[in-house]
Amino acid sequence: MSPEPRGGRRAPTPAAGAVEPIASVLPAVLAQARERHGALAAVRERWPALVGRELSAHTRPVSLRRGRLVVVADRPGDAFVLSYRREAVIGGLRRATRGTVEELVIRPGGDAHGVCD
């Protein structure tokens, strides 16, 4: 018996002969990805302008879920500066994402630009 995927749900198995061409499925998949990751992409694009070039070189937004933006900081000093500027950064993030970002979580990390999503 094969293990169940995360969340306990199995992918539906297509009925025989019910295979759809990728061209008919791709637009919906891309739209879902854009909706899910578009705000994070907007944050990443504007990050240097929001926090400054020096701080953006040592911090990286890694996830955005349910209004909570998680940022990894290379060094404790970078985390401190970002924390100190939290309210101003959140204000800029709210404007940049039309209110999507409500909270900023800062996590320590080695190389912020080597972190995977």
Q: What is the element layout, followed by pairings?
A:
Elements: H1 22-51, H2 53-56, E1 59-65, E2 68-73, H3 76-84, H4 86-97, E3 103-108
Helix pairs in contact: 1-4
What does this structure look like?
The chain is elongated and about 60 Å long. It is built from 4 helices and 3 strands; from the N terminus they run H-H-E-E-H-H-E. 19% of the residues are buried. A hairpin with a 2-residue loop joins strand 1 (59-65) and strand 2 (68-73). By secondary structure, the protein is of the alpha+beta class. The chain has one domain: Alpha-Beta Plaits (2-Layer Sandwich), CATH 3.30.70. A 3-stranded mixed β-sheet has the order 1-2-3. The longest helix has 30 residues, at 22-51. Helix 1 runs antiparallel to helix 4 (86-97).
Structure summary:
It contains 4 helices and 3 strands; from the N terminus they run ααββααβ. It is an alpha+beta fold and 117 residues long. The chain has a 3-stranded mixed β-sheet.
